[in-house]
Amino acid sequence: MIKRFYLREKREFSMISPLMAIFMVLALIFLALPVLFTILYSFNDSAYFAFNFSNLSFKWYLNFFSIDYFQHAIIVSLGLAAVIIPLTTLIGMGAAYALVRGEFRGAAVLNAFVLSPIVIPGVVTGIALMTFFGIIGFHWSFGELVLALTITTVAYPIRTITANLHGLNANAEEAAINLGANRWTTFWKVIFPQIGPGILSGCIFIFTMVIEDVSIVIFLVDMNTNTLAIEAMNYMRTMDDPTIAAMSTMLILLTLVMAWVIERFIGIGRFLSLD
Amino acid sequence: MSTKVTFEVEPGIKKADGSKNNKDEASHDFNTLTGRSLFFILLPTLILMLMFLLAYGSFIVTSFHELVPGLSMVGDEWTLNSYKRFFTSTLYPSFLWETIWRSAEITLFAIIIAYPLAYGLVRTRSNFVRYTIMLVLLIPLLAGGISIAYAWIIMLGNVGVINSSLKYIGLIDRPIRFLYNWRGVVISIVHYLIPFAALSLVGPFQNVPRTLEESAINLGASRIKVFIKVIFPLTITGIIEAACLTFALALSSFLFPLLLGGGRVKMISNIIYEKISVSYDLPFAAVLAIVLLFVSLSTVIGMTFLQRLLRRKYD
Asked: 14-43 in A: which are within 8 Å (CB) of B?
């Protein structure tokens, strides 16, 4: 019995062939190494890359926070996120609910719209919106950014919340309606508490897009609305020191925090739609 | 009813409220959301879609105009000159081809590297391996392009990690140039796109039954033979789907050529940006963008077609 169990375990463990395992490890190294070196370099005392990390320092972190345009860019990016995340999530929630519970012509069009950010290059969307805002005479840069990013990120909450709604047991909803609750009450009291994971996933994708996007945003920013990614890009084109390594390290740390939150409330596997 | 948070725009709901014993009506109301309430919850999305379409409309219209020489203004006359300028020039179509070929190269590398990761993610029994892979895929996805671009600048510089290590071992005397040419640009985009490729390869692997692989091995097939005869044919449609996604994303690369190419290596998105920021030639930028959009969309449509063809062959 024990021997049989052992054999089964061994066979299952060896499902990944040695050759595949080697490629897997190489791929992991390829992906992880640059990230690890960024973290190391951010604590480097000298501005030039060197292997002797004898003098650990936080000076590039201080430098990052002391540069006025980075301070301003952090406020702009966080401000955008604070406006766009609730707005987009609410809009996406309505659309997702309509897609799952409603019957209407044009659902296919809506689905195509939901997939569009992947297919349409960011630069194309960027200049299309720039042209459009120019023609209608809308020149408030922060507002342009909010509209542009809402249009391009609304697909994320629609997708994550739709997936979440499909997984729900419809009985509770039906019971609420049979007991006399209207659809509005049913939504907020029965459905909303159950789509937390979908909403959280959507918010994380929106946040990431708002913080990292360059190709759309670059056509719409002005001197006062340069986002963090734009300022970081400009800095990298003119300066060569670990200030951006410090910023990247903080973003990576934020990523790890988000990964922990995802694992705690959604499960990373589910977030990446693996299970 | 004590809780009267009514959704007043929906007459059907009110009726159901009043006559909730009518089972038919209640179940109809439950199953489908129709009428005005549906319209109102979809309205914000419809407005966004309308703006999106208007934006595309206005920029397609712009492409049929021309820049007034001397003034950085779009002229009023309808003309095909901006298109003519693209198709008759030798420079711009070659930029487009370069972008397409480099994207193909990037896609190939990304799929090759992502393939074992997706396989490991599906087949491993070890939580440690599973979480390591997921975390490594999550970082580029969440930390963003800037961090990845910067990381590769550190790795690939003339005194960067790779060149210093190779020099230290004694393999090279002079540094290999990775930055300001295609090598660095391709490597960094490959890294950035691997998560997208790997995650879309996971589905196809999940569809290959574990038992099929096991029985092939038990019947004496070698690992490589199992891969060629079982795994690969069963995942080919998935590979095509992943390749399609990766290729579409690679085509639209903007940040990586800008930062790692240092102005010497440009993809079509960079040219589009230059047309706007340097010469403010909006009509011509629109033409380039429409051509890029056309390539991107036809890839997706072409791949869907190919996938259907292959599915018919293998099913």
From this structure: 15-21, 23-24, 27-28, 30-35, 37-38, 41
| Residue B181 near residue B264 (C-beta atoms within 8 A) | yes
Chain B residues in contact with A212 by the CB 8 A cut-off are 143-146
Contact residues on chain B for A94, CB-CB shorter than 8 A: 41-45
Yes or no, beta carbons of B151 and A102 under 8 Å apart = no
Mean predicted lDDT score pLDDT of chain B: 83
Tell me: the pLDDT tens digits for A76-91?
999 999 999 999 999 9
Q: How far is B62 from chain A (nearest CA, A)?
A: 8
Phi, psi for residue B157 in degrees, rounded to 5: -60, 165
Residues B259, A118: C-beta atoms closer than 8 Å: no
| Residue at token pair 């070659």 | B94
What pLDDT, on a 0 to 100 scale, did the predictor assign at position A53?
A: 62
Question: Does the CB of A250 have a partner CB in chain B at under 8 Å?
Answer: no
Cβ atoms of residues B207 and B234 within 8 Å: yes
Q: Which two tokens stand for residue A238?
A: 């003119």
Flag whether residue B45 sits within 8 Å of chain A, measured between CB atoms: yes
Percentage of residues in chain A having pLDDT higher than 70: 92
The pLDDT value recorded for residue A190 is: 87
Interface check A1 vs B, CB under 8 A: no
Q: What is the pLDDT of residue B182?
A: 94
Beta-strand ranges (E) seen in chain B are: 67-68, 73-74
0.95 exceeded by the pTM? no
Dist CA B273 CA B195 (whole Å): 27
Instruction: Return d(Cα B122, Cα B120) in angstroms, integer.
Output: 5
Partner-chain contact B223 A124, CB within 8 Å: no
Distances (CA, A) of A254 to A248, A249, A257: 10, 9, 5
ipTM of the complex: 0.89
Chain B residue at shortest CA distance from A118:
B249
| Nearest C-alpha neighbor of B95 from the set B300, B240, B245, B253 | B253
DSSP assignment of B148-216 equals HHHHHHHHHSTTSHHHHHHHHHTS-SSPPP-TTSHHHHHHHHHHHHHHHHHHHHHHHHHTS-HHHHHHH
**Residue carrying the six token digits 């390869």:** B201
Two structure tokens written together for B173: 């005397």
**pLDDT at position B149:** 94
Most B CBs within 10 Å, among A104, A127, A207, to test the B interface: A127
Class in CATH terms, B85-314: mainly alpha
Contacts of A131 in chain B (CB under 8 A): 55, 58-59, 62, 282, 286
The pairing of beta strand B73-74 with beta strand B67-68: antiparallel
